[in-house]
Predict the 3D structure of the following.
Amino acid sequence: MNPPRKLHIKSYGCQMNVYDAQRMVDTLAPEGFVETASVDDADLVILNTCHIREKASEKVYSELGRLRVVKDEAARNGRTMSIAVAGCVAQAEGQEIIRRAPVVDVVVGPQSYHHLPQLLARAKSHGRALETEFPVEDKFGFLAAPSAHAIRARGISSFVTVQEGCDKFCTFCVVPYTRGTEVSRPVTKIVDDARRLADNGVREITLIGQNVNAYHGEGPDGRAWTLGALLHRLAEIPGIVRLRYSTSHPRDVDDSLIAAHRDLPALMPFVHLPVQSGSDRILAAMNRRHTADDYRRVIDRFRAVRQDIAFSSDFIVGFPGESEEDFLATLALVTQIGYAGAYSFKYSPRPGTPAADMREMVAATDMDERLVRLQELIDSQQSAFNRAAIGNTVDVLFERSARNPGQIVGRTAYLQPAHVMASPELIGQVLPVKIESLERYSLLGRLAPPPEARSVPPVSAMTPAHLVASSQTTMGA
Ligand code: SF4
């Protein structure tokens, strides 16, 4: 039997890339690859790239420069190292990567990574391989399922892709070009994935897609199901105690999704709903296809069915033509909605998008100053949200042992990390925790008596309060 080959994946960007990286590991496992955390002893290195950030491609070329040194060293030691570039930069700049970076053996777009084994074989026989077409077949039908061992190693919370691509064409966004048009996976495939995850210890599933609430996959009845209908179906699977979804577009929030929040205790009352700007003039220039008031009405519909629901969002400051008045409209919207947190970025053009040709650039100093003002407002809302949890008893899904001996850590419904002194045997359970203090973004508390033994505060007493401390970028919608 051949010794296992070592695979090192470096993944950038959104949740979808994290998920894709895991599926690449699953797809290459039958080829004899096992994951390694060290790039130095890898036989195959994959850079799973993201095109959302500024100068994304330049960062990839710098990383490839560093990898060239590692690859040369491996060759001197008689080892062959292969390098693949995957993800959205690969999709957008495949030919250019092949031209500029001879160190790269394989370039593969996000819709083609199920072909990695064949592409590696092709690179071995022909020198190099490139695939950035949008294939006609559904890649999910070809990807190897994760092993039970891999699922357990990845913990009790898992992503499941239900939808990819986007038809909205916001003028600043590369997603419709790098991920293609909207495609939804069939309901039965998603349910099969979720069952397999639940059978192997997963307790929380986050459904992901660039525009996840545009989901319209084929149901067992042959009709297109909505995201709300899919969530109802998934909530029936034994073992799945929490459901989430990301990232949503305000225009695609339909009645079935609102009903899912009303009816499903497993569906967490925390929604990431990007708005990008509070100015109708800028929203139109962004081609968002909704106004600030449309967005407010969507928020109201959620709040009407779940008083304890909280929101996070994405904002771009300094979009071409944004005036001080437009920016003030954004601050007014944030003040009115009251977020549990948000991601905010300065506008930077993405080559090939319509906004990249817009002329009225906002001065860099104005952008800097607006970003500071917006982030101060969001930070104050986030801090208030987190502080409001102190003194409450909240449900926590325990995920892992903490760094402090004897402590375990989990997440609240609002994705706040919560630490308690307790046995690791409780990992995988949802238990009530009395929150006693806040340390930066983490809540500290102690296990509380089960619900029947305590008086439960009314939901309204818990609002607003909380947020996410995440290093991932959001994606889409
Ligand atoms: S920002 Fe979201 S909705 Fe707009 S084009 Fe990108 S993925 Fe689609």
Q: What stands out?
A: The first helix runs from residue 15 to 28. Residues 166, 168-170, 173, 175-176, 210-211, 249, 476-477 surround iron/sulfur cluster (CB under 6 Å).
